[in-house]
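Board notes (copied after class):
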Amino acid sequence: MPSNTIPSEPLAAATVQGSPSRWSQFLVPSVTDLLFAALLLGLSCGALGRLLLRDATIGWHIRNGQQMLLTHAITRTDPFSSTMGGHVWYAWEWLYDLLIAIIYQVLGLNGVVFYSAAIIAATFVLALHVCLKEKSNLPLTLLLLILSLGASAVHFLARPHVVSWLFTVIWFEVLDSTEQRSAEGNKLFWLPILMILWVNLHGGFLMGFLLLAVYLLSALANYYLGREPKSDSRGRLRGLIVCSGASFAASFVNPYGYHLHVHVWQYLSNRFLMDRISEFLSPDFHGAAQQCFAVLLIVAIAVLASASRRPSISRLLVVALAAYSGLYATRSLPTSALLITLVIAPVLSQTISEAAENVSLASWLRTLISRLDSFGARMGRLEVQLRGHLWLVLVFMVGLLACLNRGRIGSEQVINAYFDDKRFPVEAAGVIAKSEIHEPVFSLDYWGGYLIYRLYPQTKVVVDDRHDLYGAEFIKDYLKIVLVQADWNKVLDEKHVNWVLVPSESSLANILKLTPEWSVIHEDSTATLFHRH
């Protein structure tokens, strides 16, 4: 008996020394905390904070939200354009607009940027958590997430699409966890509730249905191929069918009903628009973000090819869906990169663990892999134990207080969000506002959001980047003007345009300077404002 009790003290001591104390669990920052803080502060503070305002679409989102707050009604007709004023407008991101307008009124542009950065940070932190839940190696997962971050950087913008990134990760986690662990099947019925939110926040809700189709197809394959007991396959298939039907029904809980679905389909199936809107075009792999996605794809192919155990049909289909959508449209790169990481990280971790025991490898290589695998396992166990996340909350609260104090902590300006005057017509918009010009102004579509933000309701735009509102025929006329094609001046006459604001070095600016009826009212290094006599 004594011999059995002697080791108990050293064993207890070792357990205590190997695990963080209760206080350490709350006071020591975890990798999750550090990742969240790095992304939140990196994307909202200093010069990097202005990266999220490289796109001016957020301008009309803010103004539309303010309009709804003022009228206590959801916008149904266009209020911002002289050419589309009064036309039916499907403001399918109305709930986001409402939220962002409230944030803007309380915290200003700093709050808009901080909120967007927080959503991006939360998305990647959640992706890390999902991977670790699947026993992924922490250092390897971080490397894959870095590639995903690089691929997503092309769309690090203060726009509602970042909400779809978060919803995509949540949607995948629910579907995948219920397939891997049948005991979690009840989680499926959260998806219709999430769909009610998603369909009113962003058009990316379509990704939810694509993922549902993937897992339905996988369940059907498992049922007919007999890879698991029929009762299990039948129960999962029944749950997915019910969940899909409920989610589809939930998607009609929006201000426009089924008309929204018809409108989205008509927009995405319009080949003229899809072939000319830059973010719907296939990626140009000369860019750094696109190259990160290419590397991630190569890693995914290599990992799947070398895996000793073939991943489930659903995960293979998710990788196929992510690869296709990422190669099809640049705007899909973030969600595609995240989905590939979520699938590949556990498979790669398992492959590395098996390689540490592969006797066919050289002993030095096996030793190196074994040490790396052991290091990753220890980090993973420690990460799970450090669950206080005090630093995550602290960093968020400090940033929030800074936004409430106009971006300052004490006398130090840490958050200073504004639209760059080298990218947007900041000075020219000031001239328009000061001169009290009330006639519509024709400008570039991607400047429209900024002009709505600066000048509405005093001055309306002729066009902005709501391409689904304007339609293909209008955009054809717009391109005819911007590219100075035949009858460009005639189109300006038809649309009763007397004010034009375009980049100073553009072809249209040069031709207007040579046209007698147009005169320069203001010119700076970014934009030139013309008036027709």
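Comment from the instructor: The longest helix spans residues 94-133. The chain has a mean pLDDT of 89.
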